[in-house]
């Protein structure tokens, strides 16, 4: 009975689900096949559902891992952006500090240049000091050479300068050394007149005028000699000499070129000596003035006066005339003032060259400082331009990356409906 009741139900079910079947074939193994098919269908459906769920889980895990990687990348990018910003800020601070230090360096450089200029003005080099000293000494020696004609002093000055210059090896001092050597050789070949020594010799002659014997004194002197000789002779020789002297004193014949020498009185002899002293004094003045004509004229007049009024045969007069002749032989003409011309010209040429070099160096420094100032003015502008360009570059680089983070999100929305449909 139960089988009969179940079979009509199955028939009704088959009739409900398959209305198009025209007839039903009744077989004995149909129930077993249906159960197997149902089991297989259930297993396939479960397996497919399990595989679908497993695939969805794997996909979700991959999506989560991908999102985590994107989040990590975004976090790293933000950290890199923050680090980059910090580095840019540090770089800007360092650049500003470098600009400040550069300004300080340039200011210090300008101060150093000013100090160097002041130092060069205040303290010159050893060579410059030597040249200045040489120029001063040469000017003084040239003045002495022109005024007094003292060649030995000029020679000593040049020898001193030559010894000082020999201690320096600078090439620019070579023309001065050559000029000093040539002037030194030329002055050594010139005749030298010791003006001070000659003046002293004239003073000695002037002093010796008072001791020169006059011609009248020479005439009377032999009588005194006879008396002195008679005192030492025998009595009969004294008588004979006295008688002979008396006879000779009666008549005396003497040749005189100038009768005035025998006719001068003692007062006139005083004026003769004074006139002779004045001649010698004029000769000494002419010697100081380097006036050769007046000097020679005064000495000639003094010699003529001595030969006219004084006893030329006496040893004192002969010695006096001999020294006067030596003084007459001296050449006291004015020494040419070009004895130190070469040395002075060389020193002036060196000074002119030094001034020209200093002027050129100053122009070069000015020319070098002008481009430096232009560069310092352009560098801050360039730095500001770089900063304005670099600052907005960060957002522009980040903007294309932000949508990349959000791209998987629509995929989630797109995939979730499909997944729901598949699940349904």
List the keywords.
82% helix, disordered N terminus, disordered C terminus, mainly alpha, Four Helix Bundle (Hemerythrin (Met), subunit A), 424 residues
Describe this structure in words.
Residues 358-424 are annotated as: Disordered. Keywords: Membrane, Transmembrane, Transmembrane helix. Residues 358-375 have a biased composition (Low complexity). The chain has 424 residues and is mainly α. Among the domains are: 126-190 and 337-365, Four Helix Bundle (Hemerythrin (Met), subunit A); 195-240 and 260-328, no CATH class. Helix content is 82%, strand content 0%. The protein is built from 15 helices and no strands. The chain has helices spanning 2-17, 30-122, 126-147, 151-165, 174-189, 195-208, 215-232, 235-250, 260-263, 266-288, 292-309, 315-328, 341-398, 401-406, 408-423. Residues 1-17 and 380-424 have low confidence and may be disordered.
Strand-pairing-aware structural class? mainly alpha
How can the largest sheet be summarized? Answer: none
- Helix content estimate: over 70%
Characterize the overall form.
rod-shaped
InterPro entries: HemX (IPR007470)
Keywords: Membrane, Transmembrane, Transmembrane helix
Protein name: Heme biosynthesis protein HemX
How are the secondary structure elements laid out?
Layout: H1 2-17, H2 30-122, H3 126-147, H4 151-165, H5 174-189, H6 195-208, H7 215-232, H8 235-250, H9 260-263, H10 266-288, H11 292-309, H12 315-328, H13 341-398, H14 401-406, H15 408-423
Helix pairs in contact: 2-13, 2-15, 3-4, 3-13, 4-5, 5-13, 6-10, 6-12, 7-8, 10-11, 11-12
Transmembrane segments: 32-53
Protein name: Heme biosynthesis protein HemX
Biased composition (Basic and acidic residues): 396-424
